[in-house]
Amino acid sequence: MLEIKNLTKKYGSKIALSNVALSIPRGQIVGLFGENGAGKTTLMKCILGFLAHEGEISLDGQPITAKNIAKISFATCEHSFFPNLDAKAHMGFYREHFPKFSEKRFRALMSFFDLPFSKNIKSFSTGQKNQFEVICALSQGADYILMDEPFAGNDIFNREDFYKVLLGILEEHETVILSTHLIEEVSSFIGRAVLIRKGEIIGDVDTLELEEQGLSLMDYIKNTYNYRADRVSRALDELGGGEE
Prior knowledge:
Elements (H helix, E strand, L loop, with lengths): L1 E10 L2 E11 L4 E5 L6 H8 L6 E6 L2 E2 L8 E5 L10 H11 L5 H11 L12 H14 L4 E5 L7 H14 L5 E5 L3 H4 L5 E6 L2 E7 H6 L4 H8 L6 H13 L1
Parallel strand pairs: 3-8, 3-9, 6-7, 7-8
Antiparallel strand pairs: 1-2, 1-4, 4-5, 9-10
């Protein structure tokens, strides 16, 4: 269980996260949704211990330290791999530093994405780099896999196929927390949606509950965010009026 209690993060006078509370058990696929700047990346970096913060974050009842941080992996669009090394060298590094590293999964995902083993990662395209980042995170052997906009630079066919592969390879104890703006694409893939706005959790729902209510994930998000359907027409009216 990943537990977050009263998590607050400030950058000077700006509050990035305010009293965030979440409990995420093993075996879930959680979508983390919010506008740009809502606090999604900050939340993930606090979980990983990258940022100092107020409040408590625990994993299986214990603080997250060097002793248990290997239970969490991170696929970030900022990238965490070694750009001057190739995939074979990364395999050796992960094998040495992470006892639960799955070489079988690593090789299978490299094959799925058709990535070369002997080219330095810095020579990859942006999409390939993001694919490799995801491969490393999924192969580390972590119980909690955090993904922050992992599909940038990938075409829709690669993304759709990857969702299917991910569902097929995840084990019961593995949890994915996925931050993405591709809401409609992942709506049938996630089991839980957490909404964050201006650093606060404003929604947390099981997607099966939405189905039972006859609501789509997009409907739920728009309702929770009080989305104004007339904002486009109002803007166009104002722009048109400004030209007269």
